[in-house]
Amino acid sequence: MTSTKKATMTFTDGTPSVEFPIYEGTVGPDVIDIRKLYGQTGKFTFDPGFMSTAACDSKITYIDGDKGELLYRGYPIEQLATNCDYLETCYLLLNGELPNRAQQKDFEYRVTHHTMVHEQMTRFFQGFRRDAHPMAVLVGCVGALSAFYHDSLDINNAEHRHISAIRLIAKMPTLVAMAYKYTVGQPFMYPRNDLSYSGNLMRMMFGTPCEEYKVNEVLERALDRILILHADHEQNASTSTVRLAGSSGANPFACIAAGIATLWGPAHGGANEACLQMLDEIQRNGGVEKIGDFIAKVKDKNSGVKLMGFGHRVYKNYDPRAKLMRETCYEVLGELGLHDDPLFKLSMKLEQIALEDDYFVSRKLYPNVDFYSGIVQKALGIPTSMFTCIFALARTVGWIAQWNEMISDPEQKIGRPRQLFVGATRRDVKAIDLR
Ligand code: SDX
Questions:
Q1: CA angle in degrees (0–180, nearest 5) for 294-298-299
Q2: Of all residues in the chain, what percent carry a pLDDT higher than 90?
Q3: Closest Cα to atom 13, ligand 1: which residue?
Q4: CB-CB contact of 144 with 156 (8 Å)
């Protein structure tokens, strides 16, 4: 990276001032390279939550939180969601360019022919209770995949990294569908090579061996768009976890399992499940008429209640994915004759109130990707407990692309943050009778 600008840090404690290079990206905020700070001053920076910290340089995804803009390899999410399918988007995130027709065909063929999992994987499921949360099952099974591919775990071998990427993208729908089938006590459905990526997911989740499953093309397209909207999102919590896990040299399956575990949290990918639970609770407690009572609880800091699906660390404007998700929601509900879906009407009323209420406006809290995704997934027949599994499925390509970018960086080092220690200084152990 080249530097034309510099930052000078001066100290009031007699520490000599230090100069740091400032780097400019192709777009977005500059960064101050403070890697020499500790060596030159004996001081660390302090930034819990990484509010002002760039942990890496990347070419994959750019977010302009003020404009509400999201670009995958420079392409606006609106254009990708309208003109491409999920596998095209996967190719773009992994390779940096959209595929031509031959590349698209080859990539689709490779992914399609890796959708089956090792037959012994089915035994892992037997160990779970039927009421296990599907995310617990998914974390376990994805981590276990590394036990089946000893032949391609050399992360320094580009071909091994590529085949692991294909295997993970291909097998996530199969594992997600198996996690669902296990909870409902139905037999696992094998993938079909004559179906699209999203069509396969729908059939493996909702089909049974008893009859042919016909994929509804409107719903198939809607699900494919949901996957595109969730595919990557810069250095969010789960992606940062995957990068940190990968920086130790862990295999890609273990790193993706770590990403899935992080995504599970309600502040992150678990928000769509939490959002639908919130809408259900408002509906149970009086619906639209009682929204004011709920909003009052949200504003009361002591309640600990948040408006799930609202707010974002980066977006201080409308999350562009939320707009596209709302359109998709409208299409799906229309296709299914559910325009009067009470939860959809409730969510639009909640959005309207929040966007006019100064508590939310002053904090720049807008709907995020999770606000409508729960409603549209529920309309598609996906149970609430599966929402974050679908999110993990979609984000797998983003995690792999970011992991691959990190591993391929010759300057890559193991991530090892430091701390401000505020605990007990050195002291001696006393015999137990003297404590
Ligand atoms: C995802 O990082 C990514 O890119 C994530 C993601 C991705 O694609 O990977 O976009 C996916 O995780 C989307 C976010 C889903 N989470 C939710 O919808 C959960 C509800 N949202 C909040 O938990 C919160 O907004 C976060 C976690 C998303 C962001 O938290 P920040 O950036 O740490 O902001 P904050 O908590 O400091 O909030 C600032 C203020 C605070 O009030 P004050 O202390 O200033 O008085 O806004 C308030 C917060 O209390 N606030 C909310 C709120 N979100 C923030 N108040 C009510 N409801 C909310 N949802």
A1: 115
A2: 89
A3: 268
A4: no
Tell me if 363 CB under 6 Å of ligand 1: yes
Read off φ and ψ for residue 195, nearest 5 degrees. Answer: -110, 160
Query: Does any ligand 1 atom lie closer than 6 A to the CB of residue 310?
Result: yes
Report the C-alpha gap between 146 and 154 in whole angstroms.
11
Beta-bridge partners for 36: none
Nearest CA to ligand 1 atom 48: 363
Q: What tens digit of pLDDT does each residue of 265-312 get? A: 999 999 998 999 999 999 999 999 999 999 999 999 999 999 999 999
Ligand 1 centroid to 236 CA: how many Å?
12
Which residue, 100, 98, 107, 103, is CA-closest to 72?
98
What separation in Å is there between the alpha carbon of 380 and the centre of ligand 1? 27
- What span, in angstroms and rounded, lies between the C-alpha atoms of 419 and 147? 35
Residue closest via CA to ligand 1's atom 45 equals 363
CA of 368 relative to ligand 1 center, distance in Å: 9
Q: How far is CA 385 from CA 3, 228, 240, in A?
A: 48, 20, 24
Active-site residue 370, yes or no?
yes
Predicted model pTM: 0.94
Residue 333 CA to residue 219 CA, distance in Å, equals: 10
Active site residue 47: no
